C-alpha cells in the first residue's frame, strides 16, 4: 500500500482480526483525515477497541494493510510509537504521585528531552488548569480532574495522532463537555484524533464518523451526511396510549424501529419502504384502524436513527425485536 497522503493520517484496507473462530473485525476499510476528530461509534463488542489496537501497532491483524502517518503497521510500529498518543477509559495515573510528578514520569517514559520537559509541563499545567493543584495527589482528584490529567499525560510528547478509546465513560456531563473542548483545541493545533464511543451526543461532535457493528464498518461520513440519508424516514408519534401505539407500529414490516421518548414515540421506517408523505399516511392509517388516537409528524433524523438503521437493517426481524 502506498503511504498515507498529507491529508490522510490513517488508511486501512481489508483490516481483519480473528480470535479462533470469532471474527472481531471483518475487512474494514478506513480513511481518517488529518487534523480531524474522527469518531468510532458502536456498541460494546462491535470491534472498536480491537481496531484501535491494530491501528496503533499493539495488535497484529489477521489480514489487511495499515498505513499510519506514512508508516506501515505493524512492521514500523516502533517508529510510530513516538508519534502517537493512546488514552483509554482505564488510563492509569499514579494515585500516590502529585499532578506534576505524573507529568514528569510520563515525559520520561515518552522520551521528552530533559531540556524541554519543564517547559512542556508548564504549558500543560496552564492549558489544563492545574496551576493551583500541581502538588495535589492524583488519587485525591475528582473524576473530571483525573480525566484532564490523563489527557495531558497522553499528549505530553506532542503526538501527531491521538487514539482515545471510550475516554469519557466514567465522568459527569460537564466534565465530558470540557474534555471535548480540549480535543477540539488539539485538532485546531494540527493533531488528528480518533475517538471511540457508544454515546450519541459525543458522536455528533465528531468531524467525521464511522459506525461499527459486529466487526463490520456499516456507515462512514460526516454526521450531516449520515443523517441526510434517512430524510423522510423518521417520525414522532404523540399518543395518550404510547405503549399500545408502540406495539401496533412494531408489528409493521416496514417499520425498522419504535422507541419511546418521554410521552412520544420515535419511529424509523425501513429503507425501500414508503417515505415522506406516503410513510406518514401509512402510519396514520394503521393507528386509525383499531389503534389509539395519535398525532404523527415527520422529524429530522438524528444519529440515533442512523445507528438503528445501519445496525438493524440487515438483521432478521426476530433478532431486531429482541
TrEMBL record:
<dbReference type="InterPro" id="IPR003593">
    <property type="entry name" value="AAA+_ATPase"/>
</dbReference>
<dbReference type="InterPro" id="IPR003439">
    <property type="entry name" value="ABC_transporter-like_ATP-bd"/>
</dbReference>
<feature type="domain" description="ABC transporter">
    <location>
        <begin position="10"/>
        <end position="239"/>
    </location>
</feature>
<protein>
    <submittedName>
        <fullName>ABC-2 type transport system ATP-binding protein</fullName>
    </submittedName>
</protein>
<dbReference type="InterPro" id="IPR027417">
    <property type="entry name" value="P-loop_NTPase"/>
</dbReference>
<keyword id="KW-0067">ATP-binding</keyword>
<dbReference type="GO" id="GO:0005524">
    <property type="term" value="F:ATP binding"/>
</dbReference>
<dbReference type="InterPro" id="IPR017871">
    <property type="entry name" value="ABC_transporter-like_CS"/>
</dbReference>
<dbReference type="GO" id="GO:0016887">
    <property type="term" value="F:ATP hydrolysis activity"/>
</dbReference>
<keyword id="KW-0547">Nucleotide-binding</keyword>
<dbReference type="Pfam" id="PF00005">
    <property type="entry name" value="ABC_tran"/>
</dbReference>
